[in-house]
Amino acid sequence: MSHYYDASPTTPTDPFTFEVTCFDTRFTFHSDRGVFKKDGLDFASRLLIEHVSVEPASECLDLGSGSGVIGLILTRQYNLHMTAVDINARAVALTEKNAQQLHVPVTAVQSDGFNEIQEQFFDHIFSNPPIRIGKQAMYALLSDALAHLKVDGSLWVVMHKKHGVESFQRSFAKDADIKEVIRKKGFRLLRLKRSR
User: Fold this and answer.
1) pLDDT for the residue 37
2) Is residue 6 part of a domain?
3) What is the DSSP string of the chain?
4) Count of domains in the chain?
């Protein structure tokens, strides 16, 4: 069985579009089977998009970009320098296609976590993390994200209570200063900064 976190999904392709309205703007995105949340903007991602606080022209990363919704909307809204990474080749191709159609400059990279962007560091990293890869792998990914923040950079993570957000907060409290930005419908948006 193929998953959205596979590098080369074997799920038969079936391209389509969906619309998202955010910040009073309607966006049309291309998507496909075998990509995370292929059929629209999920509640967790919307919560992240609508409640992050970023400075214009910041160097940012959409970690696990799927079809590029988070990175593209935030870049359009805040004029960011955005890199979008995903292990899934189909997702990366969709991010590139959506960026071109929306005339939003985003650099899309196929990468297993930070493997292909080891030398890059960011002011902000955004993640609706891939819960299904398992707790150990997810924690390793988010630990790598902390390590790729610039000084005073922020890692934004949205996670549901039933997916272990409280355990995550306890586990990362020793390495990061964690602020809960908002909680809604069981989801929490967290802002993590590396402990000094």
Assistant:
1) 59
2) no
3) ---TTSSS--SPP--EEEEEEETTEEEEEEE-TTSTTTTS--HHHHHHHHH----TT-EEEEES-TTSHHHHHHHHHH--EEEEEES-HHHHHHHHHHHHHHT--EEEEE-STTTT-TT--EEEEEE---GGG-HHHHHHHHHHHHHTEEEEEEEEEEEEGGGTHHHHHHHHTTTEEEEEEEEETTEEEEEEEE--
4) 1
